[in-house]
Structures are given as structure tokens and as C-alpha cells.
Amino acid sequence: MKNVKFSTLELAIVVKGDNLAGAMARAVESAQAAEKYGFERLWLAEHHNMEAIASSATSLLIQHVASQTKQIRVGSGGIMLPNHVPLVIAEQFGTLETLFPGRIEIGLGRAPGTDQHTAMALRRNNLNTSFYFKDDVLALQQFLSSSNHTAKVRAFPGEGLEIPLWILGSSTDSAYLAAELGLPYAFAAHFAPAMLSSAIQIYRANFKPSAQLQEPYVLICANIVPADTNAEAQLLATSLFNMFAGIITNRRVPLSAPTAEPIYAGIPEIEQAVQSMISCTFIGDTQTLVSELTDFIEEYQPDEIMTTNYIFDNQKRLDAFRLTADTFKKINNN
């Protein structure tokens, strides 16, 4: 089995009893821990109109995190490109790449990262922007290319920096696009695992080499909840389960402390909905995680696994980076 890189997705989630500034501080701690333990990259996700998530101004938070670390790659997971004009993203990330050369990358998504009312506010009542996702990706790629020097509209900073682009997806649509453009593909199995297998197959079967990438590159984002014992990990994971229940019932609240059992226990509709979202979730001590993740990696053959970290207790959350790194090092050494 080939070595699998490991990385992390950061949403700058507010925990109960804290605030947005605290969430941003925790995001910096995440990046520093990930860097310390050998994670490949940390991505920040764009979300809007969610009072418990502090990453709405994604490029600004990327700058803050990059300034507090030394070498880990920092990027977006993702920038929801239909919310923005490509020129502005080229200038923002061109600025970031100029400040932190060789460390910045851009993951691009098609979804709004919010509800429809907020999407209308972001897109000035033009909800058709998502239909031009491919055109916008190509435009962004052109603005970042050295071949754009003869164009009437140019990105400064940005032009010629060739910042790596990724396509994000949670269904099969973006798999086709990533394959057509020859870009690395990141699948959001941490909350939408249903089409994982189909999307990866489509991407690999249709991949066309590009200047950025000669062979398909698959990143799978999954939830990993590590602890010293299986029992402790199962307890810590209830914060994640309860958060998903809040999303399903439209009660988005700060990340809460673990509970003896999930708050939706005994409500079959919610139990089923949560289970469908967390089928790519790995919970346990290192031995358990090595076993389960090895099987998962053998089945899907990803090049990289990106983990989430929805652990309430801050020290246990930081310990999880060490335990996750230990898990992947054992997998890769087998």
C-alpha cells in the first residue's frame, strides 16, 4: 500500500462558552499542532451566516494562520467561487502567495457555503453564478498564469504565480470537472459520503493530464476522532454527532461538550440522517484507527486523507493531532 499523506480541515468553530475570537485562536493552535506533527496542509472553509463558524472571510484567516506558522501549506477548503469574481480571488491569493511563497493553495467549491437567502445577498440575487463554475475556474487559472501578461485585465499580485488549484466536491459533478481540467480532486466525505466511490471512479477514469498535474490525485476528507482509549473516543465523538444533528434540524449552535449519549437518541429520523452523514467517520484508539483506516485506504486508494477535528476540550483536541499523526505513520510503515 502506498504512503498516504495526511492533512486537516479547519472551520474555526466556536465552542460553547467561547466566542469568535476564541475560535480564530483555536484555528491558529490547530495549524501549529498540525505543523508540529507533520501534517501536509491545513485548509480553511468558507461559510456564511453561521454564528458558530468564524471562517467567513477565508482569505483573511488564511493570512493570519500562515503568519503564525512556518512551513505547513495553508489554503482554502474551499473558496466558494460562485460567491466571488475570479479577479478578486486571484489578487487575494496572489497577495497571500507573495507573502508566504510556496505555501498557499486554492481549493474551489461550487456550493454557496450558506443558506439561499445569504447566497442571494452574496451573489446579488444572481443564483445562476454556480452554472458558470467551470468558466470562473478557467478565468482564475488564467489570471494566475504568466501567459496573461498580454491581457487587458491582469491580477497584481497574482499573475505568473501559478498557485495550485484544487476542485472540491460532494457529488459527481465536480469529479467530471476536476478530471477534465487535470486538477487534484478533494471529496467531502466528512459530511456527504454517499457518492464517494462513484465520484472517485469518474475522476480517475476521465482524468486528463495538465500543466499542474500529470496523474490523478485524490484527497478524501473524513472525520477522525482519536483518543487513548476506544471508550474515550466514543465519548468525544458525541460532540460531532450532536453538531450534525443541529445541522439536520437547523439548530446551528456552538460545539458542545460530550454527552453520555447523542442528544437525538431515540428519534429514528434524526438517528438515520446522522448515520448517513458519518459513514466516513473513524473513532477509537490508535490500534483501532490503524485497522479501520487501512481497510478504507485499501478500498479507495486515496493519495491523501484530510481529517476534521470537532473535539470540544481544547487539550484533547490538540492531542488528537498527535494521535492522528501517529496513526498515519503506523499505516504508512506497515
Description:
The protein has 334 residues and is an alpha/beta fold. The protein has a single domain, classed as Alpha-Beta Barrel (TIM Barrel), CATH 3.20.20. It is built from eleven helices and nine strands. It has an eight-stranded parallel β-barrel with strand order 1-2-3-4-5-6-7-9, surrounded by eight helices. The model has no long low-confidence stretch (mean pLDDT 96).
Could you provide a short overview of the structure?
With 334 residues, the chain is an alpha/beta fold.
In this structure, how is the largest beta sheet organized? 8 strands, parallel, barrel
> Which strand order spans the largest sheet, edge to edge or round the barrel?
1-2-3-4-5-6-7-9
Total helical elements: 11
Low-confidence stretches: none
Helix/sheet category: alpha/beta
Count of β-strands: 9
Helix content: 40-55%
Please give the CATH class.
Alpha Beta
Fourth-tier CATH superfamily name? Luciferase-like domain
Radius of gyration: 19 Å
Q: Please give the CATH architecture.
A: Alpha-Beta Barrel
Distance between the termini: 8 Å
Choose one word for the global shape.
globular
Into how many domains do the coordinates divide?
Answer: 1
Feature tags:
TIM Barrel, alpha/beta
Task: Describe the secondary structure blueprint for this structure.
Blueprint: E1 5-10, H1 20-36, E2 41-44, H2 58-67, E3 73-80, H3 86-99, E4 104-109, H4 116-122, H5 133-143, E5 165-169, H6 173-181, E6 185-187, H7 196-206, E7 218-226, H8 230-248, H9 268-277, E8 281-284, H10 286-300, E9 304-308, H11 314-333
Parallel strand pairs: 1-2, 1-9, 2-3, 3-4, 4-5, 5-6, 6-7, 7-8, 7-9
Helix pairs in contact: 1-2, 1-11, 3-5, 6-7, 8-9, 10-11
